[in-house]
UniProtKB/TrEMBL annotation:
Organism per entry: Roseicella frigidaeris
Protein name as it appears in the record: Invasion associated locus B family protein
InterPro entries reported in the protein's UniProt record: IalB_sf, Invasion_prot_B
Segment forming the signal sequence: 1-36
Keyword Signal (UniProt): yes
Database matches in Pfam families: IalB
UniProt keyword list: Signal
Length: 183
């Protein structure tokens, strides 16, 4: 009786695993793969704010953002208009925030309530934040640190916000859901 060998196919998956992993890691480096990502188009720069848009899934998204004052990198204050939501106001910070935490953004003595959700802190009432930004000079975020110890404080300039907001509102006119904040 001839000796039965294991089918060759059972040996290949183990040998192919490193190649499959390598292929998965290299795919983002292939020029065609990069085309799948939406490419932002700058609408304009307005003092401390930049406005841009991108199209994804047949819908245009417009956003305006600013960086904090000082040397800190990785933090952004952003206002976004999507086809189904307007005035979504978020702050992203390098190390992020704890989930389900409470934060606030102070503009001209008014504390705006935010909640933290890992990588971002989001305004509970986006439209109220936008109204405050229009009349303010700076926005100061106070949020719990990602480590759970202490707080994060970021100061964002509001110079140019109104012009940037008007630009994204013109580029992405209302037609979706009004409001903003938590849904």
């Amino acid at each position: 009786m001839p000796r039965r060998l294991a089918p060759r196919a059972t040996l290949l998956p183990g040998r192919l695993r490193p190649l499959a992993l390598l292929a998965a890691l290299l795919t983002p480096l292939v020029p065609g793969a990069a085309l799948a990502q939406p490419k932002p188009q700058k609408i304009g720069e307005f003092q401390a704010w930049t406005a841009a848009s991108f199209a994804e899934g047949g819908h245009k998204t417009c956003y305006a953002f600013t960086k904090p004052e000082g040397e800190r990198k990785g933090a952004l204050l952003t206002v976004t208009h999507r086809h189904n939501a307007r005035d979504t106001v978020t702050v992203s910070a390098g190390p992020g925030f704890p989930r389900n935490g409470e934060a606030s953004l102070n503009v001209g003595g008014t504390d705006l309530p935010f909640y933290t959700a890992g990588a971002v802190a989001a305004a509970r009432e986006g439209a109220a934040a936008v109204r405050a930004f229009r009349g303010g000079k700076e926005a100061v975020l106070k949020a719990p640190a990602a480590s759970g110890k202490g707080t994060v404080s970021e100061t964002f300039p509001l110079a140019g916000f109104s012009a940037a907001y008007d630009a994204i509102s013109k580029e992405c006119p209302a037609g979706g859901a009004p409001g903003g904040g938590r849904r």
